[in-house]
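Lecture 7 notes: from sequence to structure.
We start with the chain below.
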Amino acid sequence: MTKKDEYVRKPEWLKIKLNTNDNYTGLKKMMREKNLHTVCEEAKCPNIHECWGTRRTATFMILGDICTRACRFCAVKTGLPNELDLKEPERVADSVQLMNLKHVVITAVARDDLKDGGSQVFAETVRAIRRKSPFTSIEVLPSDMGGVFDNIKTLMDSKPDIMNYNIETVRRMTPRVRARATYDRTLEFLRRAKELNPDIPTKSSIMVGLGETKEEILETFDDLRESGVDIVTLGQYLQPTKKHLKVQKYYHPDEFAELREAAMEKGFSHCEAGPLVRSSYHADEQVNAAAKAKQAAGEKELKQQA
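Predicted C-alpha cells for the same chain:
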C-alpha cells in the first residue's frame, strides 16, 4: 500500500443522523447514575442515537469496562480488569425496567482471568431482567468463555431469547484481527450452544472492509450454517483510532444487498447487512424474525407428517 492509499476516504453513505431526544438523554443519564457501561458508548457504535433515541433498545456491557484481550479492531479498553461487581445484574435489571426497554443485549469484556469466563454473572443478569421485565426480549453476546463447555452451558441454562457470538472476520484474517479467539473455537462455541438448546436462535456477525474477499465471506456463511447459526449480520468495519487496523475497502450499499441475498439463499432465517449494521443493530426485529422462521418450519413439518 502506498502512502497515498494508506487511508481510504469515507464515503457519503456513512453519514449518521443524530437523534438526541429524551429517550437518548434519559438513558445516558441513567447509565452514569447506576455506574453501568454500554458497548454502544465504549465501542463508539454509529447507531447509538437510533437505538437509544428511537427503538428503545440498548446493549449493556457487564463485567467491567476493561478487557483482558486486545483485538486490533476494537475500541474497548484493555488491561487488568477490576474486581467483579456482584450487584451489577440487579442494577442492569433495574435500568431495563425503569427505561421500559423492549429489547436488551447483554455483552461483556473478555474476562480470561475468571475460571468461568464471567458466565455466572451473565446468567444472573439474564434471570434478573426476566424477573423485573418479563416482556423484554434478551440477547446475550459473550466472549468465547475460554471455550469451556460448562461455561457455555451455564449461559444457555439461563435461556436467553438469542445467543450471539461473533465470528468477526473470515478464517484467513482471524489471527491478524482477533486476540486469542480462534475461528474454529468460535464455530465450536456456536455449535455447542445450539446443541444445548436447539430452540434458542443463534447469531453471529461479520465485519467487512479488512481485506477479505467475497468468496471468503461466502465460505464463512457456509461455516456458520454448518454450525447451526440462524441469524447473521454484516457491517462495515470503521477504524476507531489510528492505532487500530486500517480500512481496506468501503463496501457500497448495493454490495451489502447482494451479500444479504446470498446469506438468505444459504438458509439463514434473518440477515441484517449494511454499512452501519452492527451485531446488535435492529436486534429486536431479529427476535421476531427467528420466531416466525421457527413457526414456519414447525408448520411445514406438520404438513409433511399429515
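Points to note: The chain has eleven helices and ten strands. The longest strand covers residues 202-208.
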